[in-house]
Every structure is written in C-alpha cells, then in structure tokens.
Amino acid sequence: MKYPENPPLKCDIVMKGGITSGVIYPRAICELAKSYRLASVGGSSAGAIAAAGAAAAEFGRITGGFEILEELPAAITEKSPAGDSVLFRLFQPTKRAYPLYRALTAGMSKRAKAPRIIGALLVGFWLPALGGASPGILLILLSRFGHGPAVWAAGAGGLVVAVVGAAVCVAWAALARLAGAASAGFGLCTGMPGVGAKGAVALAPFLHQQFQTMSGQPNGKVLTFGDLRAKDIDLRVMTTNLTRRQPMPMPWATKEYFFEPAEMRALFPEDVVQWMEDHPPPLTPGPDGKPPSDIVTRAQKLLRAQAGSKRPWPAPDDVPVIVATRMSLSFPLLITAVALYAVDYSLVANQKASAAAQKWLRDNPNRPAAEGARDLSDIPLIFDRNWFSDGGICANLPVHFFDTPLPGRPTYAIDLEEFPPDRTKSKHEPDNCYLPTNNGEGLLRPWTRLQTSSATTVAGIKALGSFLSQIVNTARGWLDAAQLVTPGYRDRVVTVYHDNTEGGMNLTMPAEVVTELADRGQAAAAKLVQKFVGTVGDKPEGWGWNNQRWIRFRTSTAGLNTWLAKFNENYHAAASGAALPYADLAGLNASAPLPSYPPGDRAAVNNLTSSLLDLATAWGPNNALSVDPPKPPPQLRLMPDDGADRNPLASPTPEP
C-alpha cells in the first residue's frame, strides 16, 4: 500500500507561508506520509493551508485522503468554468475592487506588463479616464478650425493635456478605490464568490470542500479541531491580531472573542457559520474544574446578552478547520482580514460598564441576563473589532510549534527561499533543495544584497523600494532566520528554492511550473526521510534522528547550564538599594515574609530554592555538558507566551 494504514513512525511538520508557493507542499506531505503518521502539523498563511490539508488527509488516511492531496497540484491547474486555471480563479475580487484586481493581475507571468497594467486601469476606470482626457480632446477638436502652425501646436498641446488629464484622474480614482478597501476588510478578495467568477469556485468554498473530502466526510459534519484531536492529530496555525499587535496560534483557549454571523457569512460557506452559531463554548468552569458558581455563570450569561447579535467564539474543539485556515491566510490587501470582537477593559468606559454590570448582578439575583442587558443599555460595554490578518506577518515559519526540550519524534520544517545569487535552478529537482547532512553545515545562510544604484531616477526609486522592502522583511523574519541556523533546528529544516516566476503572487503559473514545484517539494521531503530513516553517506541507518536527539540534548543542557550560572551569580549578588537580598526571600534559613506565597509554604520554598542552588553549583562553569556546545550556542530566556506551546484545552481563560 502506498500510504500504510498504521505507519510505525510518527513525525511533526511545520510549513512556511508563500501564497502560491504552497503548491510545493502537497506531495512533500504525501512523501512523509509514506513513512510517518503525521502527529502534529502547523504553519502560517499558505503553510496553514498545507497544514490543514495534511491534517485532513491524515484524518482520512484509510479513505484515500493522501491520494486526494497528492493530486491537488494537478487539480488546481485544470481549466475553471471561466477559462483560466482553477488556481487563478480562486481569488475573486469584490465588485468595488474588481478594477484594481484586474490591474494587479494584469500581465502576471507575461511580458509587456506595463502596457497590460495601463490597459487594465483604463478599462476599469474608463469614466475618470474620459473625464480627465476631455479638455485635451476638446482642444484637439477646436484645433481643426485653426490655420497654419497653430493647428499643430494646439493639436499637440491637446494630446498632452488629454494624456496627463487621463493619467491623473485614473490614478486618483484608483487611489480612492484602494482607500475604500479599509471599509471592506482591508482587502480586494473575501475568499468567497466575487465578480468575474463565471461559475468558478472561490478560495474558501474550495478549501472547505477539499478538507471535507480529504477527511472522508464530503457531505458530513464540518471538520473541526476536535475531530482531529479525537484521532490524536494536533493542528495549529498562526494568525496575527493586528489590533493587539501580536501573533496568535489557533485554536486558542480564551473565551473573550465574539463574532458577527452576518460578517462571517461574507467570508465562509453557510454550513460553517451555522455550525459556529450552534456551538457556543460551555460556561467557564471554576479553577478546580468544577461547575462555575452561580454568580460566575450569571456574569457570563450577562456578557453574552450585552453582546447583542454577536455570538461567542466556539471552544477550541468546535472551531472549524477552514475558519482557522482562512484567518491565517489573509495576505494583506489581496485577501480581506477577519474581524472578531472583544471588550477592551483598559478603557475607562468599559471599566465603569463592567462595575455597573457587577452591581446589577448583586442587586438582581433572580432576573434573567436579557433584562440586565436592557437595564444596562445606558452604560454599554464597547465590543471593539479585533482585526486578524496573515499569520506570516509575525511568524511565517513557526518552527517552534510542537517543540520540547527533548523531542520524542522529529519535528520537520519546510522553508521557502529564492535561489541564492550563485545557485542556478537545476532540472534535477533534488538539487533545488537544501538539507544539512553534517552538524557543521547550515551555519551560513544566503545574504540579501541591496541595490544602491541611482544613476537614473527609475534605478534610484527601485533601490529605495528594495531598501524599504528589506526593512519590512527583516522586521517580520529575523526570528525565523535566526532559528534556521540554531543547532537542533537547522538539521531538520529543509529549504526549497524557487525563482521569481514560481510561487508568490504568480497566480497564472502554467501547469508545468506547478508540477515542477510539486515535484520539488516531494524531493525535499525525500531528503528528510533519507536522513532520518535511511542512510546518508557512510552513516548508519537512522543516523539523522539519533543525531538530532543528541544535538537537542546538548543544546538544552548547554542552555540550562548558562541559565543556572546566571541564576546562581545574581542570587548571591548584593541587592541594589534597600531591596531584600534573595537569600532572605528564599533559600536555606530564609525567613522574610513571602510576598506571594502562603506562610505555610515557607519550608517548601526554602528547600526547593536550596536544591536549585546546589544544582547550579554542581554544574559549574566547566562541566562536561557545557564544554564546546553546539554552535551557535543557544540561550534560555523567559519569553512572552504566544500560546504555541500551550494545550488550548488545558487552561481555559475565564471571561472578564
């Protein structure tokens, strides 16, 4: 059997975003599925599509899920009812955005791009073009009544006025239309059927149907994270909350978000939104896991009543896979962002409204929540929009998904990069991928060189654009880049190279290019399998996995050693100012009042601290585990929790 029902091995896989570069992933996933059961899958943006597809295929392994996924690259290059490829027609603009979208896609992967773009703008904004050109056209017509050189001068002047006028008016109309995107979700396409579809399927319905079919339930219930979890499949995708300026892995545990069903129906198929409406999260249990108290239950019901037409976001298990995928795939300006709602309790107005709600609950213990919402309508809670956009904005390759200090199975990652300047594309696809096969490899990543020429105005503008683009790319990708050279990471990340005609915004890629990219992805995955399961050079079978486990052990212990040394040093250092020494707060014979522990915990706190100090002393600066650690040496630091390492079902966050 090509895809065994019960593979003896398990692995995790994380995939990078890249819009149409995602065609690399289906056959890469299928190549891994021949040897592994996919236990955990994750990604951002286009990588989230691949992750969701991988999870759905694993869910439907015995019903042909991977066979369907394997054929996906061929399926999207077939002709749609509109005549273009299925891939091109997945992106369908709104009526208002149609002229801009035509200009954006004009000449993709073709020559004479500038004339095509100009032509698309003139067709899309023909009325502003005509209005702007009218004075010049009138001047040309009037010139016919003149005599001598004045005729030619007036005609030439009229032509200039017509061209400049048309250009200015078209540019202004296009900018005005682009500005209107802010009130339409900050994008040209919603993912649902739009203008010019001509019967072609749109992105969200297409993905939803693919996930349903691959999972083996094409006409059944909506595929959810809970369905996957029931088969021990852990799917995580990254989205970006622009309102809060933070990445957020999905599904999340917090119950603070609400959605507007009417807005969701503009972004998702009807059965998906109906499922979300029919599955509100259960009321939050108490800290001990027992049913919430009556006051807590009533407070949560009141909050939901105050939300009006907005519905509470489903619990992690009930979130549809297509919804999380679409929230990760909101490529700025191309695909609209997704709006959810929450209460910003940092606002004084909401603090007052919350206090009023608590008072109402105390004063009216037996009245229903709906009456409370009416009584409090003059002091309403403000439910603000939280805009969720592309997961790749903050973490385009969330390789930290599923990581543990000592891995029990491989966590692979697939990186996407343009060919380095000294590397040319080969007809042999394995040569277009890179995976370090020795511990000293992978330390040197390709540089990005900036243009500095300003010999002409055009060259200078291009150089400035390159500079600004690299600022953005560095800001959003520096952490991903740093992880790619970290020991314990770089040896399990395979890089797939592509040129500027492949992937990215190339929506019109011909079938042969899509096939090449799909084959390249399969070759990349084969490199991982060969290294971790087979043999590499003269190394024994399975060397890659054993080596990776050892490197991760070394990096974890080396990082811990550095952390212990700093902890020990600062514990014994003199306190600044009048602060109590750490030795008085915790440790052998410490007796100062405990700031945040019950007094009865004093002995336990002292004993645990003393044991930690003994461990730090025993390890010392030159122990066997710290000498010559893998390069570059890793660091253990406290970092903000983005939720990537937290089980969304383990610690639900209560509603405020």
Structure description:
- The structure is a single chain.
- Among the domains are: 93-189, no CATH class; 448-477.
- The chain is built from 22 helices and 13 strands.
- The chain has 656 residues and is α/β, with parallel strands linked by helices.
- Helix 1 runs parallel beside helix 19 and helix 2 runs parallel beside helix 10 (203-214).
- The protein is 43% helix and 10% strand.
- The strands form three sheets. Strands 1, 2, 4, 5, 9, 10, 11, 12 and 13 form a nine-stranded mixed beta sheet that branches.
- 38% of the residues are buried.
- Strand 4 and strand 5 form a beta hairpin.
- It has helices at residues 25-33, 46-59, 65-70, 72-76, 86-89, 98-105, 113-124, 126-143, 149-179, 203-214, 225-230, 261-265, 270-278, 294-306, 321-328, 348-363, 369-375, 457-483, 511-532, 543-572, 582-585, 602-619; strands at residues 9-15, 36-44, 187-189, 234-241, 246-250, 258-259, 311-312, 333-335, 338-343, 383-389, 411-418, 433-434, 493-498.
Radius of gyration: 30 Å
According to DSSP, the number of beta strands is 13
What low-confidence regions span 5 or more consecutive residues with pLDDT below 50? 650-656
Supply the number of helical segments.
Answer: 22
| Oligomer kind | single chain
Q: What fraction, in percent, of the residue positions are helical? A: 40-55%
- Distance separating the two termini: 53 Å
Outline: globular
Mean pLDDT across residues: 88
